[in-house]
Amino acid sequence: MSMPKDFLWGGATAANQYEGGFDQGGRGLATSDLITGGDKNEPRKVSVINSEGEVKYLPAYEAVPEGYKGYLDPDQYYPSHNATDFYNHWKEDIGLFAEQGYKSYRMSISWSRILPKGDLSEINEEGLRFYSEVFDELLKYNIEPVVTINHFDMPLNLADEKGGWKNRETIDNFVEYSKLLFKHYKDKVKYWMTFNEINFLHGYNTLGIHSKEDKDRFQALHHVFIASARTVLEARKINPDFMLGMMVASIGTYPETCNPNDKMQEIEFNRMFKYFFSDIQCRGYYPAYAKKEFERKGINLIMKDDDLEILKQGTVDYIGFSYYNSAVVSTREDVKKVGGNQFNAVKNTYLEESQWGWPIDPVGFRVVLNELYDRYQMPLFVVENGLGALDEIREDGTIEDDYRIDYLASHIKEMIKAVEYDGVDLLGYTAWGCIDIISAGTGEMRKRYGFIHVDSNDEGKGTFKRTKKKSFYWYKKVIASNGKDLSNE
């Protein structure tokens, strides 16, 4: 078994977890710059201040109260500031990606590096030039850039001064930002995605809102949907050959039992956690189940007259998605919940778990590939899949990460089955954290995903030296064989 000859093997990262250089090259502050470190037991915090000078540290992925703005504490460590310093190592890193034989590299652009205030009042030419050089280096090695326009942050000015995505003006700001990218890179980038894991957008960090109420989150999300659809329409005007995708976190789910109530619970979870987002962006309308949910919760979205037509016209060309684990849904109230990718569910006794408590479910990967393709009948793109684990450097400097190889090999095997046996139309596979980056969920460095080790610790201290792990050479062999050779030899 192997993949089509034009299959886009590669790796994936995100600017707020990898790029660093937060105060270099004219970049403006972003909401992600205010998030502290943490671990699996201590959630990350966002630092904010009010007009009286009161500083608070609040859960990073929740809402910040009205009257508070982002605050950089000079005595605090913020992992995204340096991350693993792609900003100063990009040529070296792309050279390593090329050595592995990448056909594609999925990355994100920092909105505030292009527009420091989030709008056209200031355009940072140095930021535009930086990404242009990155794309040129990738293309030199025949690596296809796959670009996420917005990945889990926004310019701080838009969040603090404009109300984030609750303010409809943010739609225009995002569309103008996107058009700027399309015009500058129309001959360098073909594959784009508008928003990363759109179903995880909530609170201050990703939406820039100061509210926990469902009505405010869904109003903000409506603006995100319109911005995405308008962006798709503008992209097609600039270059009809562009491929525009959406991106969703796709956690496979099972009902705990054959109790019909458990099955219905699973259906309801998948609707509002996952399919609500992909239905709107792939089908171009609000689904009936969502309208009923809004009725029950008293949510009345404020729309303009042409909003629904924009959604209808601005559907995407493909679905990008992440898959790390599955989850078990239960109606029981007496069960102990377990974690996994910012989501609580019931423990699956049939599966092993990672060191961070995430169920390892390769067959669930095949299930998700089939579910998405059956539902939408449009091309899919696996843009995140990987294992966060502790890596040990041996005395001779080697890193024998067989656990990572085992995880990826078992998932790729099931992915190939989805294509070969099930007929899923799959564009590519980009392993998550192809080089070590800071964890989005915990802010740790010790939770490593990469094929390439970066010398930095949970306090951001180290030489940032790059070292190839055993998995580096394994994945190189996988790509060279187009998925035929998954052996760990």
At a glance:
The protein has one domain (8-32, 81-480): TIM Barrel (Alpha-Beta Barrel), CATH 3.20.20.80.
Furnish the topology, listing elements before pairings.
Elements: E1 8-12, H1 15-18, E2 45-50, E3 55-59, E4 68-70, H2 86-100, E5 104-108, H3 111-114, H4 125-140, E6 144-150, H5 156-162, H6 169-184, E7 191-195, H7 203-207, H8 214-238, E8 243-249, E9 252-255, H9 260-283, H10 288-297, H11 307-313, E10 318-322, E11 326-329, E12 337-338, E13 345-346, H12 362-376, E14 380-384, H13 402-420, E15 426-432, E16 452-454, E17 466-468, H14 470-480
Parallel strand pairs: 1-5, 1-15, 5-6, 6-7, 7-8, 8-10, 9-11, 10-14, 14-15
Antiparallel strand pairs: 2-3, 2-4, 12-13, 16-17
Helix pairs in contact: 6-8, 8-11, 12-13
The secondary-structure class comes to alpha/beta
Question: Please, how many domains?
Answer: 1
Bin the helical content. Answer: 25-40%
Task: Characterize the overall form.
Answer: globular
CATH topology: TIM Barrel
Let me know the largest β-sheet.
Answer: 8 strands, parallel, barrel
Assess the beta-strand content as a share of residues: 15-25%
| Lateral strand order in the biggest sheet | 1-5-6-7-8-10-14-15
State the CATH class. Alpha Beta
* Termini gap: 18 Å
Tell how many strands the DSSP assignment holds: 17
Alpha carbon gyration radius? 21 Å
Count up the helices.
Answer: 14
Mean pLDDT across every amino acid position: 96
CATH architecture: Alpha-Beta Barrel
* Unreliable runs: none
Name the CATH superfamily assignment.
Glycosidases
GO cellular component, one term: cytosol
Protein name: 6-phospho-beta-glucosidase
Keywords: Glycosidase, Hydrolase
Family: Belongs to the glycosyl hydrolase 1 family.
